[in-house]
Specification:
By secondary structure, the chain is α+β, with helices and mostly antiparallel strands. Helices cover 43% and strands 21% of the residues. The protein has a four-stranded antiparallel beta sheet, with helices on one face. A four-stranded antiparallel beta sheet has the order 9-10-6-12, covered by helices on one side.
């Protein structure tokens, strides 16, 4: 049935043409924008995913900038640490030269001061954008990543850069409470540094280190082994009188000039004395021959002059302070920074004591058989010195932490004692600067690796987003040509359908 009111063919042709035009518009949009999903209307799920990923890409670009800034800052600190190491090594050469007494120590000291001032200049200049990693103690965080969890939450990750304080700052105790475990940290809280010579492990009675001679030694042979040095007397060398024999022995031992060892004859008793700072000395006597004389002892031990302070291997917290106050006016303080161990505390106290340049005091750091760190202090003054030990935490955050180069500005090689102390301490300072440079080198390597990873990750994410929303241009081109052809055919079909009512008109002529 034909109708002039309802043209079904035209309606079908029109709907078909509308669909073709819609698809053609979509294809043209893909070609012009390059995206198959340009808005949430195109594909809500894919569009939402792409927008989340695009925000992450934007964030990673910011992270790349943060890593670049951190890498530059660490590079400056590493270079400064290496320069300080070189300057300290040069300073060590000057200090070694000062060990010889037949040199101009004043001129050497002038060179050391110049090198010290240069180190101070390097420390002050080692900043990037106002941040100096070799001054102060606070750690610095470099933004390194954004970690998206399965629940959609995002957490920021950081690379922590520990500052390595290479300043000459002297430590100062805070006002926190005393460390409750001080008695387990250090052997005692108050100790006396005995003056002059010490006999037999510091025993109260000096006779414990004496060797008495009784009877006739004229037919005896005696061999004294004094800390590895042997002095022998054959039968007939000694007098029948014990007092005379003791004097002969004393004169021979003193004439041997054994370092730090002397002996006196007290009415037939050999009284040994030692001024050795850090070496206990054993004296062993071998008797032979007629053996008519009698020895009060065949072996005695002379203790070293130094008093030992043993530190237990307990955890050292940032801000913990240790102070040695001596009755002779010397005060040595070490305040720990983050990451310090008991080794740092002991070595820091040694440097602080040596920095006082007190000619009566000599120090040494060692380890005992229990793997504990030991600080030894020797007093060569004729008067005893009392040591009072204080230790407290930094609960009130007002302690001044000790700089890694503390004591460098107090090095003085113009005296024998100063030159000797400087040689020990410069080694510890060189090690401190080497460790600082190594720390910065490790962090710099990590930042560089992370920066490369972020760059590659960003590229991968961009590629992933493109695969979700980018248009396939080859496919779009082919579809465009097909739709254009369909459009032309649709127009033709609609035109034909619109001619149908005209055909009905011929029926009424």
């Amino acid at each position: 049935m034909s109708s002039i009111l309802t043209n079904t063919s035209a309606m079908v042709a029109l709907q078909t043409l509308k669909g073709i035009n819609s698809n053609l518009a979509t294809t043209q949009s893909e070609i012009s924008t390059g995206k198959s999903v340009g808005s949430a209307r195109d594909n809500a799920a894919v569009w939402a995913i792409s927008k989340v990923m695009e925000s992450d890409v934007k964030g990673f670009k910011g992270i790349s900038d943060s890593l670049a800034l951190g890498e530059s800052t660490v590079a400056v600190a590493r270079q400064a640490s290496e320069t300080i190491t070189d300057l300290l090594t040069e300073m060590k050469g000057k200090i070694v030269a000062a060990q010889e007494s037949n040199v101009d120590r004043v001129k050497i000291q002038d060179d050391i001061v110049a090198l010290r001032d240069q180190i101070s200049s390097v420390v002050g200049a080692a900043q990037f954008n106002g941040l100096n990693l070799i001054e102060g103690m606070d750690s610095v965080s470099v933004l390194s990543s954004l970690d998206r969890q399965t629940d959609g939450s995002v957490n920021a990750s950081h690379i922590v850069v520990s500052r390595q304080d290479l300043t000459m700052t002297d430590g100062s105790l805070g006002t926190g409470a005393g460390l409750t475990d001080l008695s387990t940290n250090v052997q005692a809280t108050s100790t006396t540094l005995s003056a002059s010579a010490i006999r037999d492990d510091g025993a109260a009675s000096p006779t414990a280190a004496d060797i008495s001679l009784t009877g006739d030694f004229s037919g005896d042979s005696l061999s004294f082994n004094i800390g590895g040095t042997t002095i022998s007397f054959a039968a007939g060398d000694l007098s029948a009188t014990n007092t005379t024999a003791a004097q002969t022995i004393a004169d021979a031992i003193n004439a041997a000039q054994i370092e730090g060892i002397s002996v006196a004859n007290n009415s037939g008793t050999l009284e040994f004395a030692s001024t050795r700072d850090f070496d206990p000395t054993t004296i062993a006597v071998t008797q032979g021959g007629a053996s008519a004389g009698t020895l009060g002892a065949t072996s005695v031990t002379l203790d070293q002059r130094a008093e030992s302070f043993t530190f237990s291997n307990v955890t050292v917290n940032e801000g913990d302070g240790y102070q040695f106050a001596l009755s002779n006016g010397v005060t040595a303080t070490y305040v720990a920074s983050s990451g310090d161990t008991m080794e740092d505390v002991v070595k820091g106290l040694k440097v602080a004591i040596d920095s006082e340049n007190n000619a009566d005091l000599a120090t040494k750091v060692s380890k005992n058989a229990s793997d504990q760190w030991v600080l030894e202090i020797a007093n060569s003054n004729s008067t005893d010195a009392t040591v009072t030990i204080t230790a407290n935490d930094d609960a009130n955050d007002n302690a001044v932490q000790t700089g890694g180069m503390s004591g460098l500005d107090d090095i003085d090689v113009t005296t024998n004692a100063g030159a000797s102390a400087a040689l020990d301490n410069i080694e510890m300072m060189i090690q401190t600067s080497i460790e600082a440079a190594a720390q910065f080198g490790s962090v710099a390597s990590r930042i560089e690796t992370q920066s490369s990873f972020i760059s590659n990750l960003t590229d991968s994410m961009k590629a992933g987003i493109g695969s979700l929303v980018d248009a396939d241009m080859e496919e779009a081109s082919a579809r465009l040509q097909a739709l254009q052809t369909q459009q032309q055919l649709g127009i033709q079909a609609l035109s034909i359908a619109n001619q149908q009512p005209q055909n009905i008109l011929s029926l009424f002529r």
